[in-house]
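Bench notes, afternoon.
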Amino acid sequence: VARYVRYSWLLAGLVVVGAAAFLLGSYLSPRRALAGTELKTPVQVTGLDLVDTAGDPVDLAGDLAGSVALVFFGYTRCPDVCPLTMARLARAYELAGQPGDLDVVMVTVDPGFDTPEVLREYLGRFHPAFLGLTGTNSQVAAAAKAFFVGFVEGGGSVAHTDVVGVVDRRGYLRYIYGQDAVPRLGDDIPELLRRL
């Protein structure tokens, strides 16, 4: 009986040591490289007042607190980059299993045309859970500036920076995904949700 108790304690000790070694190895192993560019100094993007597709006022990151957000600035009449980016975001969202703690947001850079109704109809083509935001020219300009997005209207089109910003659960812009990295977001989303 004493021998059995001694072996049981030895076996239990080995299990504890093995589990501790696994956890330590997981903690010390290098983090998986992400396709996006990490900001060395995250930027707080709360306090940016816009309007959602129901016409209600929204604080861009403040009202999304508790979720990670993928934020793209574009417009509904865009002939190429915007629909391609939204399609890629829809694919990434679905590939990640449509996580409940991830928001995909498009902020228009053409608020004169992109009313809440226009945005709602447009985003519905990509995914019904996607959020659309608009506002006054000055509200949109302030939000774009906070995300390092530039835009200029001319001749019925809008030239704009075409990156996707990743906002953490506390309202800080943490990663930027250029168009070359956006297709890899589907693979990165689980790690982004874990980190942020």
